[in-house]
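May I ask you to comment on the folded chain given beneath this request?
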Amino acid sequence: MWVFHGSADDTIDVAESRRMVAALRKAGGTVRYTEYAGVGHNAWDGAYRELDFFPWLLAHRLPAGAQAAH
């Protein structure tokens, strides 16, 4: 999982992403966290500019025979 959040988000408090990432890591999950200083709710702009984003995204696949949750 890769989580992106703006530190100045006034829609969803950045503390929520920080807590979620910490809980996932504590449970043994592999999480990449990127927080953009001074950015509001539109952290996706920065995410799409990350050089590693699309290669990282396209490198992930469901195991053979697995079904996506609906």
Notes: Residues 7 and 23 are 19 Å apart (CA to CA). DSSP finds three helices and two strands in the chain. Strands lie at 2-6, 32-36. The chain has a mean pLDDT of 94.
